[in-house]
Amino acid sequence: MAATTETVEQVRAVTEQKYKYGFTTDIESDVAPKGLNEDTVRFISAKKEEPEWLLEWRLKAFRAWQQMEEPHHWAKLSYPPIDYQDAHYYAAPKMKARPKSLDEVDPELLKTYEKLGIPLREQEILAGVEGSEGRSPAVAVDAVFDSVSVATTFKAKLEEMGIIFCAISEAVHKCPELVQKYLGSVVPYTDNFYATLNSAVFTDGSFVYIPKGVRCPMELSTYFRINQANTGQFERTLIIADEGSYVSYLEGCTAPKRDENQLHAAVVELVALDDAQIKYSTVQNWYPGNEEGVGGIYNFVTKRGACRGKNSKISWTQVETGSAITWKYPSCILQGDNSVGEFYSVAITNNLQQADTGTKMIHIGKNTRSTIVSKGISAGRAQQTYRGLVKILPKAEGARNHTQCDSLLIGDQCGAHTVPYIESRNRTARIEHEATTAKISEDQLFYCRQRGLSEEDAVSLIVNGFCKEVLKELPMEFAVEAQKLVGISLEGSVG
Amino acid sequence: MATTTTSHGTSPGPSRAPEAAPRGFDPATARPFLEQFDRLKADLPGGSLSWVRDLRDQGRARFAQLGFPTVKNESWRYTNLRALDKLAFQPAVAAETGVRFDVLPTVRAAGTSGPRLVFVDGRFRAELSSTAGLPAGVELLNLADALTHKPDLVGEHLGRLATPDDLPLVALNTAFLADGPVLHVPQGVEVAEPVELVFVSVGSDEHPTSFHPRTLIVAEDNARVVIVEHHVGLGTGATLSNGVGEVFVGANASVHHYKVQREHTNAFHLSHTAAKVGGHGVYDNFILTTGAKLSRNEVRSTFDGEHGDIHVSGAYMVRGDQHVDTSTFIDHAVPCCTSREVYKGVIDDTARAVFQGKILVRPGAQKTDGYQQNRALLLSETAEIDAKPELEIYADDVKCSHGATAGELDDQQLFYLRARGIDKEAARGLLIGAFLAEALDEIPEEGVREAFQAYVSAWQNAR
């Protein structure tokens, strides 16, 4: 696929304006001093006016973390050791204790979200609804800016149905018994290096509780924004779907362009009780660093869902285009009989990005089923790895797994790797795994070009087709966005 | 966080260099073997040659640093060698001549004979071996003899492919390197008769016995040879066979290398084969495993010239508390090569099977075609399969795929057969046989395939 000089020029022009979320917001912030020790943990806990039990939990996590080793040996990622003392662990835009309404939120912040295209004003969305009758594309948003949640929309409307959707720091006060019962129940504070660090210093994140039998009427969404320099972002999300409930949750993220790397170590815990369903979608577009690999977010995230109840279902869908380094394995523990786990992933790495991502499906209950569809696209000098585990325990009678991992390579400087682990201890379980690696076929390209598409458009079309199985799992509004993102992320890679 | 990344601009290395204090090894387990080596080393063949001494010392030094791998070692995560440490193995002494063999295993038709080397507990048995029927120029002898009388024949190749690095078992074998088969096929020579290599584990009733056979196969350009290895057991004592093989396949040469391992269930069978394939060369490897308490076959092959072809396949059938591990690595170091892997296995009782298969396509190895498939059939409630098929790809114009499945016999197929009046056990037998036959079909040599098929049937009949 030799590119003409013209194409190359065009591509360069596009690439340079590629990351449109790279701006910074000039806002006064309340920042913890650099460094990490027990005082930092106490500082964060005090800022959040947390109860004693939570501080104790954080401190236990911090002490455990000090004994842990940064996991450098198994993931196919290379980065210099991180100096955990050289960062701020708390940064919050200066504002009143907790804004009662959007009018109390700093206009600079509102402008930021406006620029990012995130609707914080409920009426704006409602206006949109009026135009398209019959549908309700309303999305309730929890906006997290650095270490704090700045606004959560549609709270009142959701509360009418008994749904709790708020910042986790708020939930600690509002429904402490739920938080205490479920926090760390899926990802214990000793789980792994980054999750343990998160447990010690997490600042904010979203909390969702869907009561029995309630179908959440709108998409819930958290939008994470890292703004402050030299900070890490450690958010914690906890979603509980009580018996027979349903929720679809979206997560988006961006960060300014900076030359230094910033750490994002989040933990997401999902709990689905009997007959409950959680659909969790992520469009991860953290700043990926520039063409030379300078800057970008280190995205070390632990996401895990527990299908605790019978017939429960957890579905992860992710579109990963950002971050300098991605280390992320959204997983399902299929404990309840007949529970279902799904993982749909599109990961695109370009330039010098590195991604080591995949999933774990742990089949414990009878007739548990899991589906894994992973599409990896590697371009430029990027390295990408699918790493997954399918584990069938002896009692998982009749368990089923189907895994499909496909990789597409664009250019001869990149890498695409597949490392699946399959462990079965039940003969009635059926496991199928398929993986392929290929490049965009000349035939497909020729076919498109012959019909008058430019090479760039043809590649974008083919790649979108390659990802279709995953993209169709996204809620509609996201799917459109994601499709564009797929195109943008690969710009500059053809040739 | 406040770091700038410079390191990921460097070229992508396929794997990390071994670290000084490596994770996943237990150096303490090395001690008994090191003491034995230090006692024995003066008596090992070829001791007068400095390069042989150096090779052994390097092996010893590396094994001393590493010891046996532990399950924390990524490539050993599913195979635990802790049992070895508890057994206090003694090195095999000169072969017990009292052992008699009524019939030695062979793939040949009854009443025919051909080239064959026999090793008992790792030591050569001349009276059972024969080099009859080999074309002129072909060398077939044992390593101890080669080191004593023809060191130049092996000096160029020995220890060049299987290097200790982060492979403690290769290091251990290299330290104790003493005997094993040596086959050298000169340029353009085709060996019509299959060369059979018979390894018999006898051991001792008094103590666990260890030996470290070393195989060297060199096929020069345009040569062709078929090799069949038989690994069988006779005694009742625990044995450890820690074999290492090096196979050099010249340009346009072809080496068909088949192995059947039917050792006793008191045997530990560890085997490492390293192969290098020249341009247009063919290396065709097949391993059939039914024996040993714990076995691991590690096959690492590398392309050294374009348009090479590597087939690494096998079948295993295990029951009781057997453990079988197959770990393969195919290194597409150059463009335009083809590799194919088909592994199928049947696991019964509380047996456990492990399959780890890695295909590496290095930068620039365009037009690579890599295919891998592994399928496991679980026959009991308590059987276990752990599989890790892995692709590591640094070139874009390639076609690589792998597939893995695990499950039990298909109910519909069983129903189909039973509806035609076939009883349940017979129907299961048919389906298992058909399942394994697909793997055996990977063997192009008809005589070998039929002989291996007979081993599969024998295993099934014993069920």
From TrEMBL, chain A:
One Pfam family of this chain: SUFBD_core
Domain SUF system FeS cluster assembly SufBD core stretches: 224-466
Domain SUF system FeS cluster assembly SufBD N-terminal: 152-216
Domain of life the protein comes from: Bacteria
SUPFAM superfamilies: Stabilizer of iron transporter SufD
Family: Belongs to the iron-sulfur cluster assembly SufBD family.
Protein name: Fe-S cluster assembly protein SufB
From TrEMBL, chain B:
Any coiled-coil regions, as ranges: none
Domain of life per record: Bacteria
Pfam families: SUFBD_core, SufBD_N
Biased amino acid composition, Low complexity: 1-14
InterPro entries referenced in this protein's UniProt entry, alphabetically: Fe-S_cluster_assembly_SufBD, SUF_FeS_clus_asmbl_SufBD_core, SUF_FeS_clus_asmbl_SufBD_sf, SUF_FeS_clus_asmbl_SufD, SufBD_N
Region (Disordered) residue spans: 1-27
Sequence ranges assigned to domain SUF system FeS cluster assembly SufBD core in this UniProt record: 207-435
Annotated ranges, domain SUF system FeS cluster assembly SufBD N-terminal: 33-196
Family membership: Belongs to the iron-sulfur cluster assembly SufBD family.
PANTHER family in the cross-refs: PROTEIN ABCI7, CHLOROPLASTIC
Protein name: Fe-S cluster assembly protein SufD
Species of the source: Azospirillum rugosum
Lineage: Bacteria, Pseudomonadati, Pseudomonadota, Alphaproteobacteria, Rhodospirillales
